[in-house]
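Supplementary Note 2. Why include the ligand at all?

Several targets in our set were suspected to adopt different conformations when bound, so apo predictions alone were not considered sufficient. For every target with a known small-molecule partner we therefore ran a joint prediction. The input for flavin-adenine dinucleotide is given below.
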Amino acid sequence: MVDLIEARVVVIGSGPAGIAAACAAAESGGRVLLVDGQSEPGGAIWRGAWTGRVPAADPAPVWFDRLRRAPVETAFDTTIVGRVGPHRLLAAREHRSIEIRYDRLILATGARELLLPFPGWTLPGVVGAGALQLLVKNGLPIAGARVAVVGSGPLLPAVAASLRARGASIAVLIEQASWRALARFAGHLMVGHFSKFRQALALKRAIRGTAYRAGCWPRAAVGEDRVRSIVFTDGVHLREEPCDWVACGFGLVPNLELAAMLGCGIRDGRLTVDDHQESTQEGVFGAGELCGVGGVDLALALGRIAGHASVGDRVRAERWMSLRDKHRRLATRLEHTFRLRSELERLCEPETIVCRCEDVPFGSLRGAASARDAKLATRCGMGPCQGRICGPATERLFGWTDRSGRPPLVPIRLDALADPPDS
Amino acid sequence: MVDRVAARLQSAESQGPIDKEISVPEPTPKPRDEISLTINGRLVRVAESTTVAAAVIGAGFPSFRRSVRHERRGPVCGMGVCFECRLTIDGIVVPTTCQLACREGMVVTTDG
Ligand SMILES: Cc1cc2nc3c(=O)[nH]c(=O)nc-3n(C[C@H](O)[C@H](O)[C@H](O)COP(=O)(O)OP(=O)(O)OC[C@H]3O[C@@H](n4cnc5c(N)ncnc54)[C@H](O)[C@@H]3O)c2cc1C
Ligand code: FES
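The joint prediction is reproduced in token form.
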């Protein structure tokens, strides 16, 4: 038996964008189902706050309250793994498969961290920056540990501040963007986005005393059975800093696999949408980081527009457009400020592992012409993560794109598929 | 309290985007019960809702498995994407232990 759930509007992903979309669609009169592979709403940024495991930062409580009150059905621990037919998706929940039917679909599948390979990045103790934050939220003791935060983007100081608040000491924060770019960005915030400027100042205070190295990037993580130090450079000098953890992130990449599988248009690494957040597939909308990385405020605005528009309530949708434009301008600035320098593409030695699942070294990939070519020759991207970690990296290193989006989207237990729904 | 927030939300809704100014006090995190499990033969106690990956690193085992070339590996993404946190739990290989909460009496072993 396959369970069947049906709703007029189905929202995939319950991060800020999905929550806003579900609430907005319900307000505009739709019958809404909110689906997430996680066991609770909140997405990456509000993880753990719904159940009170971690304190909820503004504006999470307001949105959680709104979600609790809205006539929105929810299905957690439910991961979309494939498409069964028009307006029909297949989901897995533990040992069962569930068919989900919709009239309108809103994709709010968020983003993951971009990890770039460098010598030593496969050592235990080298983790994603947001990942370390998640592990700590999920019970990992960090007090007393020395953490090197490495990479690029506004997430790094946020992670450093939150780890420090839990007793970690930040050995060094290594940001690849130059001081000049950061100063220009700060000036822009001060003039155009004062509340963001205040937030940035508060963050700066929270990591006061930390060695903040702008215009620097990692060269190697060093250790035997786990990481012991990070070696970094400003292009001229090399420095080494002892640490227990290297938390790295070079920005975020949208989770486009489901959108690609549904045939939605994708350009420049983001979902193509019109002014009302509708994709190139009629009736399929997108919101949040999927449509370009822009932070929580933009995700909320896009979610509201998608939610209202999905049930044809264009008037309400249009109310949020000027706010959206404001946050989008900031997102463009961010993208510009934290654009990755080309030196990051030249960090690998021939023996540096690029595909962690299959242990494919950089040296054996250099001859390949495309992602497909590399797959056939080396199994790069064919392990359990299906290229989710190495794919965005090889896109940057070699310019390969691979958006085949073949189901199942995630490896699932075969018994969950034992009773495929009849087509 | 909740009603007041809802009322303010309603008025915020009718006036457009001003919900930034609403602030609600942070709820204090709930007290947590403890769970005991066995990690590499050692009895470990963790707070309820701790994930297996977090508990195993916390118990002093950052290396979870051996890769194809026999290198040591541990968790990387923390969100169920990379599959580097797989472990044997009660005799069964669990692919994403960063997504699994500890349960009383679990027996966990690393292969790293
Ligand atoms: C690891 C990490 C940590 C971050 N930490 C911070 C921070 O501290 N501060 C900050 O300002 N910003 C942080 N960000 C950025 C923040 O997530 C974004 O700015 C924004 O809030 C994203 O909102 P969203 O709703 O688009 O996506 P997300 O919040 O990423 O939500 C997407 C949701 O979709 C679900 N999903 C995806 N695919 C499927 C599927 N196939 N089936 C079912 N469900 C699915 C996921 O489980 C997830 O809950 C972080 C991002 C990441 C990746
Ligand atoms: S740490 Fe990546 S899947 Fe668990």
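Chain B touches chain A through 53 residues (CB under 8 Å). The two ends of chain B are 51 Å apart (CA to CA). Comparable summaries for the other entries are listed in the accompanying table.
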